[in-house]
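Kindly review both lines to help learners:
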Amino acid sequence: MNKVDTEKWRKTGLLEGIENETSCDELAFGLENMEHHLLKDVPSYTKESEQFASIESMMLPIVRRLYENIHPPLSTEWLYNDFKRFYTEQKELKEECKRYARYKIDEEAQFIAYYVDDVVTRLKAIK
């Protein structure tokens, strides 16, 4: 594993609650990989790509939540593509999250929770 700037990710709050320094470094590495994937491979935001802007904004919290449940961490490319598929297919779930959320961030957090549960369930079924 290459050395990443763990302090950069600590400042975001995404490493909060992780006491073990090795675990912090591993999660920071996963976050760094996702950041590079998003900056390199994902088209820039335009009015036409609002859906993908929403996907982009949810990817780092997804990496954080999945890290608690899955070791070794998933490929960032697989994770991004899988979430994009899930986001596109789950129209009713998106509407439900929107209907019950008070703020956009609550809507996204609820949708992320559903997605993480889905991934963990699918991976447990494979094992």
Notes: The chain has six helices and no strands. The radius of gyration is 15 Å.
